Amino acid sequence: MRTTRPSSLNRRALFRIGGAAAAVNLTAMSARADEAAAPSTPMPPVEAFAAPPAVDEVAISPDGTRCAIVSQMGEEKTLLHFRVSDAALRAINLGPAKVRGLMFGDNDHVVVVSSVTIDLANFAGGNDEFSVAHAIDLETTDAVRLFANQKEFYNIIAGDLNRIKVDGEYRVTASNYRILGSYNLCLFSFDMAKPRSRLIHEAGPDAEGWVVAPDGYLVAFSKYDDQRKLWSLHHNLAGRGKSPDFKEIFSVREPLNTPVLVGQGRDGQSVIVAFNAGEHDGEYRELSPDGTLGPALDNDGGGRSRTPLFHPATGRLAGFSHHDDWLTYDYFDPLLTKIVAAAATALGPDYRVAIKGFAEDPRKLILYGESPKDAGSYYYADFSTGQVELLAHNYPLIPEAWISQKTPVSYRASDGLEIHGYLTLPPFRVAKNLPLVVLPHGGPQARDNIGFDWQAQALASRGYAVLQPNFRGSSGYGEAFVVRGHGEWGRRMQTDLSDGVRWLASQGTIDPRRVAIMGASYGGYAALAGATLDAGAYRCAVSIAGVSELNSMLDYQFRSSGGTLNRRVRHWQQFTGDRGGYDDISPARQAAKAYCPILLIHGTDDTVVPIDQSKRMERALKEADKPVEFITYKGQDHWETVGSHRIGMMASALAFLEKHNPA
I want to staple 318 with a disulfide (CB 3.0 to 4.6 A). Which of 311, 379, 482, 614 is the partner? Predict the structure, then answer.
């Protein structure tokens, strides 16, 4: 790590201004695209949208006096930090790290989690993405890698990263596998000021993780025996200050959709378990130390995606967030309820607001907001004083007038199922007979929401309408909607997309003769399937890290799992169906049916969908004498972490679209 003088920072990437009045824009919305107004500013360059956002990660210290941000400058990450009471901004260069997380270990140290692509002996599957964690002293800039000098352990982390406070001293927990013997999962705690660790508990190789109270007390842990398909929960019967004494209090046989141990219950003794199958499917329940299951919590979720919320000081269950078009927060705690109400209006009436982190005093927090004029900004707020201070704009090179608005839409699939999604219209264009890009999400068990999407915005800026359907199998609409996607990979999951095209055409919004499809990961598969299996729907297709041949992809998953038919493999098979039908839904096997030009984009360091999938598709298309282009990016991973490659990928995609489906 090396210190960078604040004066050398790229000030467009992060800046701070004082005072709530200066930080909050309360002006009214300007005229939008349906008026076909002339642009007052030139079209932004592609990097205005495709460059990594100014804020990768953000954190607030336990006492609420410091903030830290990881930002990307060029190809390198920079850790920016400051005291709220002091205007001085300091920076620490992290190099070209693939940062995945940031937290304060205490008030003077942060823990930066990054990942490396490497092949480690003792781990199955060859190259994989492993997490590493560094504790960084913000005053000296000294960095210590967790597990760096721990015998019998690689210097990686498996998970269980928590801040605890024991006898007045902050420590950080992390788990790792002992690489000798039976590969037990072990939980350690680390002193932030000194490079030393302490073994807290050693579980077996089937352990999944622990619930740790803020005072360091181990409440419970779970494990899954993949051979017996048995999930079990083990509760600590020992009192505080004593050696852990775990007893199995609950178990259930489940081959795939196992329960998940989530956190502490409301009384600090019980734990919260999420059930994903069986009679309690879709429910969160408290499990007491004697194994008694409490009633279902948050029963009014109505099938919406929801996530338990825990108190920033006590660590106990404090409410649930709900995920519709945007996040909403429903706390049990009266103070947190008031804070959420204040946060909702702190940035102005047009803002959508999300909470990104609390201090131990929850009145001090980090907010994220978006509005029709703001592509996403971060703020520090102290509701004990009323202070609201801007930290950073994520996309400062996008002028307000070029921010396109997403609109929720719904339509009926060919079998009558209602499909929800989002439509982004291009600025300065009348919403009639527009060219369209269908942009399906990855997963497939994921979803798009109404938040700012840099790919959709880049496409809209070039004159395209953008449809992002949450096809059957997507999360966020209840378990029944997910199940509707089982066995429908390449089938109704695919026609849900082109049904949306036909609906938009019937509304007169788009020109059905000028439609393209583009996506990444599962969305990349959908692009390839659209160009081969859904005849005549699209003029061209762009696949970014897409699956092309399901048998080889499942074999890859099998090898990566150590040659076992584990939960990851079985999860895939829920959607793909019987392996005997894979050739029929594999674009590489159906390349002779390709009816439009295809662009393949893939990074060489992708460990989720290996680059071999794009190579297979290119080879099959060339053998069938079909038009194809293939662009590789050295060192790029599945999450498009390398900034210059991310810009290059988008520029290549736009050039291809403008050539084959001009706006």
Answer: 311
